[in-house]
Amino acid sequence: MPSPTRDGLVVSPSLTIPRAELTERFSRSSGPGGQGVNTTDSRVELSWDVDRSAVLSRVQRERIVARTGHRLVDGVLTVTASEHREQRRNRDAAAHRLAALVADAVAPPGPRRRATRRTRGSQERRLKAKKQRSATKRMRSSRPSRDD
């Protein structure tokens, strides 16, 4: 399970993002929360510059860019958390979210799909159903078919 530590954000046993590479930004959270939400900056944006990170290998960087490219803005990966009223809990939530996102992106791809053939029975059932549907529609037709 990915976890934040004092030294950095542990993504996997072989990958820890140093705290120096992470940038936190705080803002006012929207939504319910009563008077406290109007006075505390509890929303957290946690950013990590993937392009300039010193802890990634070439393969890891390529995987992250390929799998999270739609989330990257100028090579920076950003996650937000605002579900809790307390800033500390939102900081932890954002750190867990970023670590899980990076762990999924860095993971090696799964095994390739092996092509399989349809069974003869499944093909026959499909064709039988098509013929049955065709006959039903032919019977509904207002003009007589050519077979009659």
UniProtKB/TrEMBL annotation:
Keywords, sorted A to Z: Hydrolase
EC number: 3.1.1.29
Residue stretches making up the Prokaryotic-type class I peptide chain release factors domain: 15-140
Gene3D superfamilies: 3.30.160.20
GO molecular function: peptidyl-tRNA hydrolase activity
Composition bias type Basic residues, residue spans: 111-120, 127-148
Disordered, as annotated region: 21-44, 101-148
Pfam families tied to this protein: RF-1 (PF00472)
Primary enzyme class: hydrolase
Family: Belongs to the prokaryotic/mitochondrial release factor family.
Listed name of the protein: Alternative ribosome rescue aminoacyl-tRNA hydrolase ArfB
Natural source organism: Isoptericola haloaureus
Organism phylogeny: Bacteria, Bacillati, Actinomycetota, Actinomycetes, Micrococcales
